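Dear colleagues,

As part of the handover before I leave the project, I'm documenting each prediction I ran so the next person doesn't have to rerun anything. This entry is a single chain, and its sequence is reproduced below.
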Amino acid sequence: MRRRGTGFTIIELLVVIAIIVIATGILVSNNRCSHQRAALDRMAQMIITDTRDVLSRSTSGEIYPAPVNAVPPGGYGIIFDDPVSGGSFSNEDYRLYADLNGNHIWNVEDGLLFNQTLPDKFSVHSITCKNKSGVGVACNPPVIISFLPPDPVVLIRRNGESNPAPADEIGEVTVVIRIPCANDCSNPEDCRKIIINASGAMSIANYP
């Protein structure tokens, strides 16, 4: 009697190859996400550094160039947007600006220092606000944080809100950034919080 061959059939080989390809893809994806998580604090620190940059410009009384040739009346500031919540520009960007007309909100009369894009497709996941009593309030992005020279006085304003009633003034804004390979923050390790308050304090915190 002849013995049957002990080799693999074509179907069995294809199944093994498919399993190897899928396993390799999962490992590569997990490795990429791990590298992105490791970079989260670096991205958050970049935002803090840029916020401190506009703070420094205001406290030093930096002159805005021609044709203004003066310290901006509203100082310098930073703008965060969140298209998911109704914002107007990309959630991979934020803006540093000079408040040339002193109304504490961003408009076409102001000076754009630069538009900063988060590297490697990192993005702003959400923006939340609290009033000065610590109660959560709607942010209505974009949210504008201005530093008025020379002290500086810190003003946090919602879109189009130049002079809110005292009870409505924002006392703290939290910007949550997210890694590119995550669609949400269901895994807290995929996100990081940048907290800026009206006293000028800035910090980075774990999510949530």
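Strands lie at 76-80, 93-98, 111-117, 123-131, 136-137, 143-148, 153-157, 170-178, 191-197, 202-206. The first strand starts at residue 76 and ends at 80.

All the best with the project,
I.
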